[in-house]
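Suppose a colleague, Dr. K., hands you the sequence of a protein chain of 110 amino acids and asks what its three-dimensional shape might be. Before reaching for any lab equipment, you can write down a predicted structure in token form. Begin with the sequence itself:
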Amino acid sequence: MIQQINFEALKDIYTPEGKFYLCSRVPANFVRFENYQECKALTPNLFLLQDYENGYFSLAVLNEMLKKQLNVPTCRSLLSHIRAEAQDCSVYLVSDLPAGFLLNIVKNIK
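The predicted structure, expressed as tokens, is then:
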């Protein structure tokens, strides 16, 4: 099972059995767990995210641009690994993106 959560929810959801991928350029300072991995490959380009936050384009446009950014061989193999890992344990994508946004992209990139 793969779920997307934000950094605030990580404090409440943390389990030693789960696997946590921190999809952020700058992870929160409190994150000090043994079963987490920084996953900057699944984060939006900083300028892309800033342009969205400044209102230059909509969430739908951000979604399409992020799909293009993540649809490269390196990210596809990482996503394949994450999906395989999710069959054995709970996998959490920890991100500041809107709820379910990254999860939807991860499930749709083959």
